[in-house]
DNA sequence: TAGATTGTTAATCGATTAACAATC
DNA sequence: TAGATTGTTAATCGATTAACAATC
């Protein structure tokens, strides 16, 4: 693999979107595409696409463009989607169970290997081929299975301590749905925050900005 | 309200986070805070905070800083969280039902007034005080209740046509969870996309970037 | 070869940071 | 008044866009 060091966050955040669009083209049997065509499809500039891709390597061919299948695969490799990083879900409430059922972990570089909660109401329930386990058994489980990543679907009040407990067990990559900015406290952790509440408020702002009249 | 026109998207995206941090401070009975203190808390620069806030007005006081309660309320007003824009949920599968139950619409500027699906398996089910209705009744419902916004928890294949159908009914603000970039096709619509799959892939990338050794 | 389109360098634009005068 | 901290202007930095030589 070529060097990916120091690629800017804005480029990284665009990778999944490139991957999605290329996947779509692929399923519609498009074999080649130029940066100009892809740009018009994705509402970007051709320059930006070429700049972005060249952070990782020269995947195109002058006078031809890009091979859709090859580029799709390359971007998948760059993101590491072919891996299966073992991942646990902490918190099997409504949101946790839905995430477990809804996401395609296998094609996103992960494998969901365990689900934990501390409420007797959900412990023992089956969620997408896994059984919800008692949080008390987390240490033993991690010793055996060595998960590297965790999904946090827990209240913000316990997010910090839970993350700390997981870090001690060698789990330092977090997909954080709790209403809490995990990244701030954890030097050395890899954190992706999903703040659904923030997203809804952003929508609210934009509606008001677009239609200020109706007070 | 003062002028918000032309505020950059990066500033807007930070507003909910400011609101969250100020809410936290408020709940811990902090009455005043300087841009420097808030900056260290949020891991921003004091300059950025003052710049951001001054897009909307001068909420601080020289030599004193900002009143936490007042600023919290101001930002809430700027985002329009005190409104109750009527909103419908389209798609009452796992994800849709969870979103309906999980989000605090009332304190985010919305009111969930209807839930729709086309599958007999979920029509008639109760979800958080609402009953899932048949998509066939969408037109009649919109005529009566005039929702302005919709949550789309539907497969990407039907996202476009569903959004189009809603636009015809006067619903042109979308909180889109479908695996599809709605914004691209709809001039005049207000769209906030939530791409959970993209987020998971971004985490995958960052894990690989941080720990490239373990192939 | 001629045409097309990339990879890459240079120019522009916008967002972040620094500085400081205004003022509470 | 003196000290602190804002609001705001100027400087810097980074990301996007434009341009073009390289090359398939």
TrEMBL record, chains A, B:
The keyword Nucleotide-binding does not apply. Homodimer. Coiled coil: none annotated. GO terms for cellular component: cytoplasm. This is Redox-sensing transcriptional repressor Rex. It is found in: Cytoplasm. The keyword Cytoplasm applies. Keywords: Cytoplasm, DNA-binding, NAD, Repressor, Transcription, Transcription regulation. The gene is rex. It comes from Anaerotruncus massiliensis. Belongs to the transcriptional regulatory Rex family.
């Amino acid at each position: 693999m070529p060097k990916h060091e120091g690629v800017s966050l804005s480029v990284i955040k665009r990778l999944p979107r490139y991957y999605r669009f290329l996947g779509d083209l692929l399923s519609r049997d498009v074999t080649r595409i130029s940066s100009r065509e892809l740009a018009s499809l994705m509402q970007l500039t051709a320059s930006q696409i070429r700049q972005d891709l060249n952070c990782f390597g020269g995947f195109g061919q002058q006078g031809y463009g890009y091979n859709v299948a090859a580029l799709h695969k390359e971007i998948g490799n760059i993101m590491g989607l072919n891996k299966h990083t073992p991942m646990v879900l902490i918190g099997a409430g409504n949101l946790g169970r839905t995430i477990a059922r809804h996401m395609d972990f296998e094609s996103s570089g992960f494998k969901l290997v365990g689900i934990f909660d501390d409420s007797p109401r959900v412990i023992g329930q089956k969620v997408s081929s896994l059984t919800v386990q008692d949080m008390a058994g987390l240490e033993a489980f991690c010793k055996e299975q060595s998960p590297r990543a965790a999904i946090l679907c827990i209240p913000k009040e316990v997010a910090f301590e839970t993350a700390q407990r997981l870090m001690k067990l060698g789990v330092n990559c977090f997909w954080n749905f709790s209403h809490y900015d995990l990244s701030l406290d954890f030097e050395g952790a890899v954190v992706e925050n999903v703040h659904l509440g923030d997203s809804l408020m952003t929508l609210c702002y934009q509606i008001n900005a677009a239609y200020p009249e109706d007070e």
